[in-house]
Write a structure and sequence with these properties.
This protein is an alpha/beta fold. The chain has helices at about 25-30, 65-70, 105-115, 120-135, 150-160, 180-195, 205-210, 230-240, 395-400; strands at about 5-15, 35-50, 55-60, 80-85, 90, 165-170, 200, 215-220, 225-230, 250, 255, 260-270, 275-280, 285-290, 295, 300-305, 310-315, 325, 330-335, 345-355, 360-375. Helix 3 (about 105-115) crosses helix 5. It binds adenosine-5'-diphosphate (ADP) and magnesium ion (MG).
Length: about 400
């Protein structure tokens, strides 16, 4: 079996200007006066992606993952080195990339499909399947500027997978979809994999990466740290994130993100104010944060993991329909969970703040706190979830038709 993608020694630099918030005019005016620096986003990266693999790109924010995907999609041209793609490529890189805001969903399917190399007849034939998978039927004749970011992503992803790509490139965007759509995507990736397609994906969710990827590469500061079969590469990367290698370590917590808002502390409060509840009890989760720069409509959320790393549940202010408006001073947010249906044990909480689209990390703190679920006065059978079950006998003779009593 051959390689779907061969990357040979690619480098990519960006010009980084010294002044912040410079206007286009001042940038033009200063041209040639050397007020910028060259920043190396990819430094001599070589790797191959085996045909029909599901290949994960992992690394901290700013490590070059999106830049690498853009080089593969030929949106960016590397300054040095060479990329060879053996097969038809479809890419889903940014929310709404390739979409025209004023056009309807329907027109955008045609536009985007033709950009990705489909003929009009091909799109006619696949149109229903595309719309069906996206779940935006009711909105298909509305301009996409009225869509939520989740709707954008669902429609974009539906077009991309229906292009019948031999190689599919997917950046973080899928994290925007809801859980049901993410499950559908995971299933689709598995199907593409069975059909021998190659998928290269970037995801922040290590549990889903672990579940999906058979190969992986780890980038750090534009350098390739490791590449090969997924398990050892992901393990090395996770090991590195457990150390003090994040963007900032403050008060023993490792922060990852652009830092306009920082999560200071997260408390899980049971009925006596301790991080301890019985199965089925209510709990309050409080997130205290500091603000360095105002952010319009940030999204706060937290996730719960088991000690073995299994990702169990998450909630955020956007999915709960609570827009926060302009956040410009420190504060505390509270989330009430009316009933904790977790099996007795210890659990890990990860808290995060993102921008309004949830694609950009402002702060992310893994293992910010832990809490314990006690069994109360009952015994439980195991697993992650406590099912509130009621058992009782059924009168079989009365309910099975045709049986004589
Ligand atoms: N168009 C650009 N201009 C200047 N710097 C950029 C540009 N795109 C990316 N960068 C910088 O390159 C680095 C790698 O970015 P990126 O590939 O987006 O990382 P990742 O996707 O791993 O978070 C970052 O430091 C980022 O700020
Ligand atoms: Mg990125």
């Amino acid at each position: 079996m051959g390689d779907a993608i061969v990357i040979e020694g690619i480098s990519k630099h960006f010009r980084v200007y010294h002044e912040r918030n410079q206007s286009l005019k001042s940038a033009v005016m200063r041209r040639g006066r050397g007020t910028y620096e060259d920043f190396l986003a990819l430094d001599d990266v070589s790797l191959t992606v085996p045909e029909s693999s599901t290949f994960a790109l992992v690394g901290d924010n700013g490590s070059g993952k999106s830049t690498l995907l853009k080089c593969l999609a030929q949106i960016l041209v590397p300054d040095a080195g060479r990329v060879t793609m053996n097969g038809r490529v479809a890419a889903l890189l940014e929310v709404g990339s390739g979409f025209h805001p004023e056009l309807s969903g329907r027109d955008n399917v045609y536009l985007n499909g033709s950009i990705l190399g489909m003929t009009r007849q091909e799109i006619d034939r696949k149109f229903d399947a595309i719309v069906d998978f996206s779940g935006v039927e009711q909105f298909i004749d509305q301009p996409v500027k009225n869509y939520s970011s989740g709707m954008y992503v669902r429609l974009g992803f539906s077009v991309a997978i229906n292009v019948d790509p031999e190689i599919l490139l997917v950046d973080e965007v899928l994290a925007v979809g809801d859980a049901a759509f993410q499950a559908k995507c995971t299933e689709k990736f598995a199907q593409l994999n069975r059909e021998g397609r190659t998928v290269v994906l970037v995801s922040h969710s290590m549990p889903s990466v672990r579940a999906m990827a058979d190969h992986a590469a780890w980038l750090s500061g534009g350098h390739l740290q490791a590449v090969g079969p997924a398990a050892p590469v992901l393990e090395k990367y996770e090991e590195s994130t457990r150390g003090a290698t994040g963007n900032a370590v403050i008060g023993g917590l490792e922060h990852n993100g652009s830092g306009e808002i920082r999560i200071i502390e997260v408390d899980v409060l049971g009925h006596d104010g301790l991080p301890r509840v019985d199965v089925g009890d209510p709990v309050r989760v409080r997130i205290a944060f500091d603000v360095a720069e105002p952010v319009e409509n940030p999204v706060f959320g937290f996730a719960v993991e088991a000690l073995d790393g299994a990702y169990l549940a998450a909630t955020n202010t956007r999915n709960a329909g609570v827009p926060l408006g302009l956040v410009d001073k420190p504060g505390v947010l509270e989330c009430v969970l009316p009933s904790v249906q977790l099996h007795p044990g210890d659990f890990i909480v990860t808290a995060a703040v993102t921008d309004s689209t949830t694609t950009h990390s402002i702060d992310h703190v893994r293992d910010v706190t832990r809490f314990t679920v006690d069994s109360g006065d009952r015994t439980w059978s195991g697993g992650y979830l406590a099912l509130p079950a009621t058992w009782g006998p059924v009168d079989v003779t009365a309910t099975v038709p045709g049986r004589s009593a």
